[in-house]
């Protein structure tokens, strides 16, 4: 397994960006002559960056026996959307980054059925936003994700500079592609499979319960789990393994001492 730090110039954002990639060991790759290595894009939350999953979760240890590449980009505090202040993070990560990654690693699959996306908190929102807003990802997972802003209207009023800079005002946000449930209504074909987990003591738990129920009503294939837990890494490091088990990969858990 190799951990590779890449700095590249983003034409979309007009600046250098960084991304971390975990590339599987040659002994775990079934056939290096093809381009079928599956890829998981793993997204950070509001306080994180491209290093967060590496530092906090030990993700490289979890997948060291598995033929899976992991791509960890950064969106700063931009919620993985094209912001109103002109930073088009959605385009940069959903459209540009897969091409950049494939240029560096031509053995990674470009097929939808072998491209997955997951994230926590803001990254959980981002995973659903990118999966529902493109045809690039077949599976999308959210851990403690911001799956709905209903009931959070005061955020837009209390900090209009930030939230307005990201999404615009509440009226322009509602019904737009940046609202997960509104975007889901427009995703009629080739829908991704969805996974979500949220802790019952998490402040986002009511929103997850509501959003998942609505997605199921809309006919999405959703695997939803909840358990005791709050909004912190202790739980996300546990549940990312559930995500790996859920994905259509030959996930091989590392051997543990009894």
TrEMBL record:
Pfam families in UniProt: Esterase
Key words, A-Z: Hydrolase
Presence of the UniProt keyword Acetylation in the record: no
GO MF annotation, one: hydrolase activity
Keyword Ribonucleoprotein (UniProt): no
Enzyme class: hydrolase
Classification via InterPro entries: AB_hydrolase_fold (IPR029058), Esterase-like (IPR000801), Mycobacterial_A85_antigen (IPR050583)
EC number(s) on file: 3.1.1.-
PANTHER family registered for this protein in UniProt: DIACYLGLYCEROL ACYLTRANSFERASE_MYCOLYLTRANSFERASE AG85A, ENTEROCHELIN ESTERASE-RELATED
Name the UniProt record assigns to this protein: Tributyrin esterase
Naturally occurring in which organism (per UniProt): Lactococcus lactis subsp. cremoris (strain MG1363)
């Amino acid at each position: 397994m190799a951990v590779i730090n890449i700095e590249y110039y983003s034409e979309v954002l007009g600046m250098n960006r960084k991304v971390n990639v975990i590339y599987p060991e040659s002994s775990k790759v079934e056939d290096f002559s093809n381009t079928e290595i599956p890829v998981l894009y793993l997204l950070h939350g509001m306080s994180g960056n491209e290093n967060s999953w590496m530092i906090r979760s030990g993700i490289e240890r979890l997948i060291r026996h598995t033929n899976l590449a992991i791509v960890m980009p950064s969106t700063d505090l931009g919620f993985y959307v094209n912001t109103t202040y002109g930073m088009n993070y959605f385009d940069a990560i959903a459209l540009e980054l897969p091409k950049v990654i494939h240029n560096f690693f031509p053995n990674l699959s470009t097929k939808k059925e072998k491209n997955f996306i997951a994230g926590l908190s803001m990254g959980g929102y981002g995973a659903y936003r990118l999966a529902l807003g493109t045809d690039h990802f077949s599976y999308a997972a959210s851990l403690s994700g911001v799956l709905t802003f209903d009931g959070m209207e005061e955020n837009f009023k209390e900090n209009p500079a930030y939230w307005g800079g990201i999404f615009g005002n509440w009226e322009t946000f509602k019904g737009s592609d940046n609202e997960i449930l509104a975007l889901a209504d427009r995703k009629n074909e080739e829908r991704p499979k969805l996974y979500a987990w949220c802790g019952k003591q998490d402040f986002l738990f009511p929103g997850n319960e509501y959003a998942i129920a609505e997605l199921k009503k809309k006919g999405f294939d959703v695997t939803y789990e909840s358990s005791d837990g709050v909004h912190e890494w202790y739980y996300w490091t546990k549940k990312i393994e559930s995500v790996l088990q859920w994905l259509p990969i030959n996930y091989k858990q590392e051997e543990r001492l009894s």
